[in-house]
């Protein structure tokens, strides 16, 4: 079954802010599982836009500059991000 790809709300290079605490689900190497990768309010920049085909959902790779972890690149969904 074919369907139209849902267009992303955010674009590559756009500045965003973490709308929620972004927590390691166990897939981020070198950081404890359940550790906060980027806290609510942390600014970041979209570095890539992908697509989860099963759910027809845009997925964003966002580089956040954090105080505790330095720069981290985190996969985010639209509801986890807001514009500044």
UniProtKB/TrEMBL annotation:
Q: Which UniProt keywords apply?
A: Nitrogen fixation
InterPro entries, alphabetized: Nitrogenase_MoFe_mat_NifZ (IPR007415)
Family the UniProt entry places it in: Belongs to the NifZ family.
Q: What is this protein called?
A: Nitrogen fixation protein NifZ
What is the source species?
Novosphingobium beihaiensis
């Amino acid at each position: 079954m074919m369907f139209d790809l849902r267009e992303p709300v955010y674009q590559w290079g756009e500045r965003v802010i973490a709308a929620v605490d972004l927590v390691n689900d166990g897939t981020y190497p070198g950081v404890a599982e359940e550790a906060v990768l980027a806290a609510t309010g942390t600014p970041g920049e979209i570095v890539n836009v992908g697509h989860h085909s099963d759910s027809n959902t845009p997925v964003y790779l966002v580089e956040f500059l954090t105080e505790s972890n330095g720069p981290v690149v985190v996969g985010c969904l639209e509801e986890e991000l807001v514009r500044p």
